[in-house]
Amino acid sequence: MGRAGGRGATGAAARVPAWLFLREFLRNPGAMGALCPSSERLAARIAHQVDLSQEGWIVELGAGTGAVTEALLRHGVRPERLIVIERSRYLVRHLRSRFPQVRVILGDACDGSALIEDCVPLAAVVSGLPLRSLSAEQVARVTRAWCAGIGPEVKVIQFTYAPRGASAWSDAGLTWRTDETVWGNLPPARVEVFTR
């Protein structure tokens, strides 16, 4: 991982995520949700929503190649406080190599907090899951599973490429707090924040 602060790989290793992301997209487009990883600008806006003063673990769902993971570390999240959940074993291998101090779990976000039973309390759940390209059943399982285990101070941060519309997090019982459109991302994306 580079120096403290969590800088990502450089040189040849930094180019690896693009082809790795494309390969995973071709294998399972619905699970990836986009043709390329989140831009640095989008990742930074997502990370900025995490309150570093809030006690507890930061959980990232669907880390892909680690664009948001890197942004969270740059934002100041300590690596030992960050848990990444990813269901692709190839991406998990990449993430563990790129971020050796971060706890990376091979698992399905549908299993909710059962994946992290020993890690309470939570401070934030950062979701890179493509909720609009997953089945309705998967989306309901993910959102219900994670909403069940969070307290009133926990933020759920989700980005979406949909310019408007209701969120599955609201359907699962959370309250929308704010959103921001990141126009510099291709395509433009909205960063939404929810709480109980």
From TrEMBL:
Q: Which residues form the Ribosomal RNA adenine methylase transferase N-terminal domain?
A: 42-160
Q: For this UniProt record, give its keywords in alphabetical order, as a comma-separated list.
A: Methyltransferase, S-adenosyl-L-methionine, Transferase
Record InterPro entries: rRNA_Ade_methylase_Trfase_N (IPR020598), SAM-dependent_MTases_sf (IPR029063)
Transferase recorded as keyword: yes
Q: What is this protein called?
A: Phospholipid methyltransferase
Q: Which domain of life is it from?
A: Bacteria
- Per the UniProt entry, the signal peptide is none
> GO molecular function, one example?
rRNA (adenine-N6,N6-)-dimethyltransferase activity
